[in-house]
């Protein structure tokens, strides 16, 4: 007999959680998150999860508060005798801190992996981690979904005549090449040099973009400084049009204003993180059907490889 499946969503992913549950074919579970005067959090489940296969949906943006909330949710489920607790984290905060890039710094992604496992999480489901190797930080099953599954069909529907994909930095070449491979297209690279975080000193284009319809590929956009500078640069180099496709729209600080004032025709993204501001240049495509299908395959013990394009 298959265990009863229950889906709950934390504070950061209420709308996405409802959409995933709807795509799965059942209502979202009843969860209350109490907030004390000092902002301490206390999640409680208002229905039984005993013996159930539970899926907890929570992106961790902003990371600190929502990560803690997710961990308390997992703990509450384990203590309520859930059969299995699956953490669905469409966006995993701290994933950019995946290595020591200078002396005496933490590896934030590994710390988060340790925390997730320490509370008894049975499985993690995520989408487009900043580096695929982060899966190796975990000793539990990790379902690493590909955001291109939902964004690539939209790019294809544009029927761009001279399509070429671009990486906004050297570090994103592998991701961009994988995306371009789905279209049989070539790639170019923008090489940037930073003086400090979120501040670019110089940038140059490696490759020819003259007369091309350029699509930048990245996992996330934070302050949008890099992507907007890169978009302006390829237009100066003779590109016919420029777009960007990402998975996680952090869009912090001046990001929206920069996107509006940039050469970008549009920024194509998903709803792993809810939008806080309306922007006519941003097109959001939902990952809810993708996660619902992955959850169904986990429950039925079917392969999720069929979900990748």
Describe, in plain words, how this protein is organized in 3D.
With 309 residues, the chain is of the alpha/beta class. The protein has helices spanning 14-24, 63-79, 108-118, 148-157, 173-181, 225-236, 255-261, 288-300; strands at 5-9, 31-35, 41-45, 53-57, 84-89, 123-127, 142-145, 163-167, 187-196, 199-206, 213-217, 220-221, 241-245, 248-249, 267-270, 282-285. The strands form 4 sheets. It has a 7-stranded mixed beta sheet. Strands 1-4-5-6-7 form a 5-stranded parallel beta sheet, with helices on both faces. Strand 9 (187-196) and strand 10 (199-206) form a beta hairpin. Helix 1 packs across helix 8 (288-300). The longest helix has 17 residues, at 63-79.
Task: Record keyword descriptors for this entry.
single chain; seven-stranded mixed β-sheet; 309 residues; 8 helices; 26% strand
Outline the secondary-structure elements.
Layout: E1 5-9, H1 14-24, E2 31-35, E3 41-45, E4 53-57, H2 63-79, E5 84-89, H3 108-118, E6 123-127, E7 142-145, H4 148-157, E8 163-167, H5 173-181, E9 187-196, E10 199-206, E11 213-217, E12 220-221, H6 225-236, E13 241-245, E14 248-249, H7 255-261, E15 267-270, E16 282-285, H8 288-300
Parallel strand pairs: 1-4, 4-5, 5-6, 6-7, 8-9, 8-11, 11-13, 12-14, 13-15, 15-16
Antiparallel strand pairs: 2-3, 9-10
Helix pairs in contact: 1-8
